[in-house]
Each structure stands twice: as C-alpha cells, then as structure tokens.
Amino acid sequence: MTIPRTIRMHENDNVAIVVNAGGLPEGTVFPDGLTLKTRVPEGHKVALRDIAQGEPIIRYDVTIGHALAPIARGTWIEESLVGMPAARGLDDLPQPVRDRAPLAPLEGFTFEGFRNPDGSVGTRNILAISETVQCVSGVVEFAVERIKKELLPKYPNVDDVVAIEHTYGCGVAIDAPGAEIPIRTLRNIARNPNFGGRVMVVSLGCEKLQPARMFPQGSIAIRNAQQEPDVVCLQDAAHVGFGDMIESIMRTAETHLAVLDLRRRETVPASELVVGVQCGGSDAFSGVTANPAVGYASDLLVRAGAAVMFSETTEVRDGIDQLTARAADDGVAQAMIREMAWYDEYLKRGGVDRSANTTPGNKKGGLANITEKAMGSIIKSGTAPIAGVLAPGEKLQRKGLIYAATPASDFICGTLQLAAGMNMHVFTTGRGTPYGLAAVPVVKVATRDDLARRWHDLMDINAGRIATGDATIADVGWELFHFLLDVASGRKKTWAEQWKLHNALTLFNPAPVT
Ligand code: CA
To answer: Distance, CA 375 to ligand 1 centroid (Å)?
Structure first.
C-alpha cells in the first residue's frame, strides 16, 4: 500500500495538499496521526487543524482566503469553503530590502550559440518573414511551404523558416493609446536573437501598419552591418499575378538564407541565455513541484549572469507586496506598481478583476482562487532581486531577473516574451498542454508524475518526482539548468520541436479595432 503523503509549503500553513495519485479516501491515517474526515482529491487541500468560520486559510505563509464555514481538522477544503481575499492595495507597499546578500556567482557554464551582429546570441538559426498585416498571411504561408521544400535544403545551416503571422495591421485604431503595444511587439519580434539580425517583411501596400511605421528609421540597430528591412509589397505594380508575388518572396528569402547559412555555432557563456518562464494549465502541484524547481533554475541562471523573465500580471498581482520587497531599487518597485495599476485599470474597463483568471481546470486541480494560484506562480521567479521591469512588447536591455509585464494567456505571454528577446522558453503545466512556439525552443515541465508518464513524448522534465519524494527541488532545478544548456546548444531538442508543434503568435492589443 502506498504511504499517504501531504506537502505543506510553510510551517505557518494550516493546510497541506494531498499528493497521492487519485487522492485519498475518508479514514486515511497519516504517519503523524492526521486522519481524513472526508475524501480528499489529489492536489487538493486538507485542514491540518480546526479552522473557525472567518479564520484565515494559510498556504505559502500567506492568507489565501477565509473560511466560509467551520472546517474541522482532516477535512477537504473545497473551493466553496474559501472566501477570496480582497486584492492588496497598491499604496504603502513594502520598500525594497536593501541589505540583501548578493547571490554567489556561478561560473564555468557555456553553450554553443549563434552570435549576432548586435551582440545577442541565438539558440536557433531561423529566417523570419515578418508581416505588416494579416491580409498577406495566406500568400506568405504558400511561399514558406515552397521555401522549405525548394530552398531550405540548399542551406543546411539554417534551421527553419518562420512566418510571423498575426491578426493586426489594418482595421485597427492605430493611433489610439495602447496601439503602440502590438506595433512594438511585432517590431521587436523581428529582432529576436534567433532570427540572426535579418529582417524581411511582406507588406500588402494599403494597410495602416506601413513598413516604415513598423520599423521606423533607426529601429533596427545592427552593429557592423548596414541593414534596412527588405520589403516585398504585394500590391507593387511589378507583380503580375500571384506567381510573381511568390517569386519575389522566394528571391528575397534566398538572399537572407544565403547569409544565415554562413553562421556557425560558437562557445558562449551561459550568461547569453535569455529565458522566459511561464505556466499554463496549472494545478495545485504547479506551486509545489514544477514552479519551485523553475525558481531554483532561475536562481542558477541569474547567478550565471543570464537574463530570466517572469510574467503573467494577473498571476503575480496578489503577491505585489513580496515583489516590491524584492525589487533591486525604488525605481524597479515603482515600475512594478505602475504595471499592476495599469492592468487593474485595464481589467476594470472590461468589467472584471483578477479573479477572472482562474479556469475550471485550475479549480479541479485544487486551486481555490487567484490568490492561491498567484503564490504558486511567483515561486517560478526564484529568490533573486528583481533587476528590471518591461512594459508589454518592450525589448529587454539587461541581464538578471526581470519582470516582463504580460497577460497570463499562454500565447500572449509567449509572444510578448519573444518580443522581449527570449532565446529559450520554460513552460510548466499540471493539467497538461502541448504548447510550443516556432521561433524558440519550449521546455515543458510537468508538475505531476502521472502527467509526465501519460504525456511521456510531450513533457521534457518531470518535476512530479518532487511530490513522490524521488527527487528534490534542487535536483530538478539542476536538471532543467543543464537541459536548457543542451537544448540551447542544439545538442538536444524539446518534444515540441521534435513534433514541430507550435501555437499561433497572439498579439496583446488593448486598443480598439475599427
Ligand atoms: Ca500562462
């Protein structure tokens, strides 16, 4: 018989979660004498002591809610028993902690990457074809199919050809406040380190987002190379028929492929990694196994001098007091508050609040509300001081731990982290999602042993071993760190790469459409 197990995140917690597969029946007796008065599903919370009505329910040493009825020790804390706490105000937040001991540097780790003219490093060598507007996407898709079949085999050092398809570009209020977000996102995606500094654009001709607006003079800063974006305009008078358009795109693509093909991987320090982390399809294990392991790896990366971005504003909003305390300085704390306030207002305009975040799957997996989800989400950021903050769609300019403000939507978060310049992506999941991106390797970390076993050819790392007692958080954190270096070097592929699984890029456009 399996030993009944719970995990308590902090000694002050009055709840723990049951980690046995399939949950535990009423009457189960734990080694410490705790007896279950009710059945408790896997990943759900059990009361460790009697909790009176109105008393706080504490997990991660944080009040995740108040008891809506008396809860006896040993009882399953169903979602309906948990009253959600109000959001923390954005005034009088804790000041950055000043006398923090710096994390010890981690030296000697390298990977094999593609050095770009602007100094950044790619983990893949990809030709990206940017689009100014959705109207051209069918034509570009047609051309990309032919490029892959007819041209790519001639350029063996180029990994792939990727169209940057999106739904923006026309029929939008392009001068409205907020429109700058999708525009700079597209601009900065074209500059992602995995695209080798080559910028090729397909435009329709009459769209609102003209190439010159997408790439204003000087926006493509390439050192040692004088380069303007190469634009193929479908409405160009020289194009007589569809065949001419495809020939133009292919001819332009080939000039870029020829240059990209000359690139070779070279040994670079681990500090050249730019890792975006996020979670999706979360359950109560996310914050117990996978996210703490990612947090551990995040600290290793920061210690090695790399950049790590964590995101998902609605999922960190409830922990804002922890985050301002962890800011490297007042400017960073203020920028965090600015991004939270902007998002509060954005949600308010839509008539909702942060509680709109949780999904039926989250709740089925044991997460009672967004406060509980947030505590498990923030752990991905490890313990390093927060060195900087990016607004949505901005490009990263520095190393260290960065808060890149994005919605929590997997596709929008991934798209914005791509614009920020990530060259590796880490994605944790408990319920399971086959998420992937075409432009950057996505390393998927399973929160549960059962998911890792069932989805053995989709999940790259099994953090569920932490719940079963077969590995520590540090073990899985190191495993992830080494795996990132291997995948970044091209020595290994993620499962999503193996199967060529990728989701659509999804722009964040808070401005009106017309
Ligand atoms: Ca997400």
So the answer is: 14
Catalogue the E-assigned strands of 457-501. 461-462
| Gap from CA of 353 to ligand 1 centroid (Å) | 17
The Å distance, Cα 320 to ligand 1 centre, comes to 18
User: Span 111-260: which CATH code?
Assistant: 3.40.50.2300
Around ion ligand 1, which residues have CB less than 5 A away?
278, 280, 408, 410, 413
* Per-residue pLDDT tens digits of the chain, which is 514 residues long: 579 999 999 999 999 999 998 999 999 999 999 999 999 999 999 999 999 999 999 999 999 999 999 999 999 999 999 999 888 899 999 999 988 888 999 999 999 999 999 999 999 999 999 999 999 999 999 999 999 999 999 999 999 999 999 999 999 999 999 999 999 999 999 999 999 999 999 999 999 999 999 998 777 654 434 456 799 999 999 999 999 999 999 999 999 999 999 999 999 999 999 999 999 988 889 999 999 999 999 999 999 999 999 999 999 999 999 999 999 999 999 999 999 999 999 999 999 988 888 888 888 989 999 999 999 999 999 999 999 999 999 999 999 999 999 999 999 999 999 999 999 999 999 999 999 999 999 999 999 999 999 999 999 999 999 999 999 999 999 999 999 999 999 999 999 999 999 999 999 999 999 9
Find the 506 Cα to ligand 1 centroid distance in Å.
13
Query: What's the CA gap between 59 and 57, in Å, rounded?
Result: 7
Find the 413 Cα to ligand 1 centroid distance in Å: 6
Residue 170, token pair as written in the block: 């026309």
Extract the tokens encoding 467: 């719940």
Using the mean position of ligand 1's atoms as its centre, give its distance from the Cα of residue 414 in Å. Answer: 8
Give the C-alpha separation, 295 to 474, whole Å: 10
Task: Choose the CATH number for 1-86 among 3.90.550.10, 3.40.50.920, 3.40.50.1820, 2.30.130.110.
Answer: 2.30.130.110
Q: Residues 160, 124: contact at Cβ < 8 Å?
A: yes
Cα-to-centroid distance, 138 and ligand 1 (Å): 28
Short-list 221, 256, 204, 251, CA closest to 120: 221
